[in-house]
Specification:
The protein has 14 helices and 37 strands. By secondary structure, the chain is an alpha+beta fold. The longest helix has 24 residues.
Length: 756
């Protein structure tokens, strides 16, 4: 009997940014339950990590698979206690069919003893081949595509590794503590929008090689398993341990484009979350919480709306095993020292930034600051980043330190720096625009400050394109009120959705479309800048808790809080887990629903708070502060106090969900110092909307107004960072900083749906 077979623990639906506090909540509550696990030791921990970017024999290349190997390697070493010598990477040309099978045998099967921990990770193309045993309704077996497999034009024999073979390899292991992570898919197609899909074409016309059946017969003989039992067992369950797949069988696993590197969207979500764990959780709880990290990645990639990672396991319900069957170091980290050269204080320090959230990576370029963490999790010095390439960075010591950095030393965020000229990258997809239209779009877009036109496989935030008949048919099932075929507008990067209100008439020229879209592009740029500073809920030490509730019933729809903030000894209670209205954990709110926000200041000092909302079109509403006749004190929440927004019974107190439909988010910014520049801009906006001197929200802030407000907000946060403090390294004048001890920036996502 299968106990967890095909159970979906992750809902990889694309959404707005999830509050990082969600994923930390259950961790804190389970710390005592799994505390004893840390004292247990495993005789040995072995890993085989396979990643293939460049294929031969006409198989389309990928971009992030080899990076996945690095992500897993650093995670296993620095968070789960694997030894470098016990991790075998197979990269590119090394990952032949025979190379993978031999490595699995030599490195894992021959070395692993009962009770040992084994991890096998594969990032690359997946496919499907004919299955003579017909285990599935479609009579196909999923495969892994090694580097030396092929893509026959009209079908035929391929050198894939069948799922049946992987079953036998797992079965041959002497230990039950086995984890297999497969970041690939079997849905076909080389691209999805501007993203590479990890699937080579396959199906009933593709046949496994005779060598594959010979490999299976070899292991049947070695294990003493009959052919009949082999078929029976694999139809019942996985061979041992757990098998984790990035997506369901009919979905797309994709490379994601991040700040300076590509990686598997799922692998990056998984590894980044595990860097932030503060206690040992059950396997099921871990995967439930990884959901939140996955949503953030999906949102940043502007697509991936139908991704649902899965887990299969032969564990019984009462077997609350840990992820990778191994305890994690309970001090969370954003980075780790991987190398040190030279004598202090002039040491050159190499860092791995695997614990930093995807949306925040650009904040960890030159001049950002990280704290050196001692064995108790306390700051014991600082380093400043001098350069970064992908997840690798070079840094130097910038303050006296109680702990000299050495390979394996953990680091936590102190101050991230904000580039002054962040840009919005608009992709021009050749499948949506012809060459003449692309040239026109490039010329028109270059006239808009801080907006870039990009082509090819470069990182992009949105795609400018024409609605084709094919695209219209694909989107019909998921997107309401689709624009006409032939109209020009903005798509998400994966082409899975459109940007609300961005499409014009079907006979519009590209140049005219760009002119029409200019205010919306500026709004989207401003939203990118705001989101860029968000995401420190997992790292901020400001103690604040925010709930979005149904105004009438007080039912919690979503929640954001600072995980490290509530861990401080302030006597504040931990927040409650929110009740959500959708299976994915993202509340679906109908147009017209009345909502409110509860803000709890658990600090010992007053906090200045702002709440903004950004809808699916890029338009922003100012929810709080809302008293435009008062001073900066209107945004102030006293220590230990709670504020309800809108206030019960107050004038103009109705806060309703409004059009357009799609994913939106509420943005919460809390600071220990006044947000003076932002307040002055908001007062000007209030006057322009006719609500000066009144208690009212400010709706529909767009274009240059939105950009101006965004710049003012970052200036305020930078001023707070540079204020009186102890132990902080002075910042240079050419950057703006955000200090985790003084600022908290969070988000609560929701999806606007039609009125029921």
């Amino acid at each position: 009997m299968s106990y967890i077979k095909r159970r979906q623990f992750l809902q990889f639906a694309g959404s707005a940014l999830a509050a990082a506090g969600f994923s930390q909540l259950d961790i804190m509550r389970q710390s005592q339950e799994y505390g004893k696990v840390l004292a247990q030791s495993t005789p040995r921990k072995l890993a085989l990590l396979v990643g293939i970017n460049e294929y031969i024999n006409n198989i389309p290349p990928l971009g992030g698979c080899e990076q996945d190997v690095l992500l897993q390697r650093e995670l296993l070493i620095h968070r789960f206690g694997f030894k470098d010598a016990d991790i075998l990477p197979l990269i590119g040309k090394q990952a032949t069919r025979q190379g993978i099978l031999q490595a699995f045998n030599e490195h894992l099967i021959k070395q692993a003893k009962p009770g040992d921990v084994v991890v096998f990770h594969f990032s690359g193309h997946g496919s499907l081949v004919q299955d003579k045993d017909r285990d599935t309704p479609d009579k196909l077996n999923s495969t892994l595509v090694p580097v030396d497999s092929s893509l026959p034009e009209n079908g035929g024999v391929v050198l894939d590794i069948m799922g049946h073979t992987l079953f036998m390899l797992m079965y041959a292991l002497q230990t039950d503590n086995v984890t297999m992570v497969l970041d690939s898919c079997h849905s076909g197609g080389a691209k999805r929008g501007r993203f590479r899909v990890r699937s080579r074409s396959g199906g009933s016309d593709f046949l496994p090689s005779p060598a594959e059946f010979e490999e299976q017969r070899k292991w049947l003989a070695k294990t003493g398993l009959s052919q009949q039992d082999f078929i029976k067992k694999r139809r019942q369950n996985v061979a041992k341990g757990t098998v984790i797949t990035a997506v369901k069988r009919d979905q797309f696993a994709m490379d994601g484009q991040f700040s300076g590197f590509d990686a598997g969207v799922f692998t990056y979500a998984l590894t980044q979350y595990l860097w932030q764990k503060t206690a040992n959780e059950s396997l099921t709880t871990t995967f439930s919480n990884v959901n939140q990290s996955a949503k953030k990645i999906a949102w940043e990639q502007r697509g991936g709306l139908d991704k649902e990672p899965e887990i299969e396991s032969n564990l019984k319900p009462n077997q609350n095993k840990l992820i990778y069957f191994s305890p994690v170091k309970t001090i969370p980290a954003e980075a780790v020292v991987t190398g040190v050269s030279g004598a202090p204080p002039n040491s050159n320090i190499e860092l791995w930034l695997g614990g930093i959230e995807a949306q925040s990576l650009e904040g960890f370029n030159e001049k950002s600051i990280l704290n050196i963490i001692d064995a108790k999790g306390e700051a014991a010095g600082q380093v400043q980043i001098e350069s970064r390439q992908g997840l690798n960075a070079k840094a130097r010591l910038v303050s006296a330190t109680k702990v000299q950095p050495a390979p394996g030393t953990l680091l936590q965020e102190s101050i991230r720096t904000i580039p002054k000229n962040l840009t919005l990258k608009i992709g021009l997809d050749e499948t949506l625009l012809d060459s003449a239209a692309i040239k026109q779009a490039q010329q028109a877009l270059q006239t808009i400050p801080r907006v870039e036109a990009v082509t090819g496989q470069q990182e992009t935030h949105y795609v400018l394109g024409r609605m084709s008949k094919t695209q219209h048919e694909q989107l019909q099932r998921r997107v309401a009120n689709l624009p006409a075929v032939g109209s020009i507008g903005l798509f998400t990067s994966t082409l899975d959705a459109i940007v609300a209100t961005s499409f014009g008439k079907s006979d519009e020229t590209v140049s005219a479309a760009v002119t029409r879209l200019q205010p919306q592009l500026k709004s989207l740029l401003a939203g990118r800048v705001v989101r860029y500073i968000l995401g420190n809920a997992a790292t901020s030490r400001v103690n604040i808790n925010v709930k979005m509730i149904v105004a009438d019933s007080k039912k919690v729809l979503g929640q954001a809080f600072t995980a490290r903030g509530i861990g401080k000894n302030t006597g504040a209670s931990q927040p409650n887990k929110p009740v959500t209205l959708s299976d994915s954990g993202i509340p679906k709110l109908p147009v017209g629903m009345k909502v409110a926000f509860q803000i709890q200041n658990n600090e010992t000092v007053p906090l200045y708070v702002s709440i903004l909302s950004i809808d699916s079109s890029g338009k922003m509403d100012v929810i709080f502060p809302f008293d435009w006749s008062s001073s900066e004190g209107d945004a102030l929440i006293q220590p230990g106090k709670q504020l309800l927004i809108p206030e019960s019974g107050a004038n103009n107190s109705t806060l309703q969900v409004s059009e357009p439909q799609g994913f939106s988010e509420a943005l919460i910014i809390a600071s220990t110092s006044p947000l003076r520049d932002s307040l002055r801009v908001l007062q000007t906006l209030a006057a322009s909307r006719g609500v000066a001197g009144k208690r009212s929200f400010i709706p529909a802030v767009t274009g240059d107004e939105f950009l101006n407000l965004t710049d003012s907000l970052i200036d305020d946060l930078d001023r707070t960072t540079r204020g009186p403090s102890t132990g902080n390294t002075p910042l240079a004048s050419d950057v703006r900083g955000i200090d985790v001890n003084k600022v908290a920036t969070m988000s609560i996502p929701f999806e606007v749906t039609k009125l029921v």
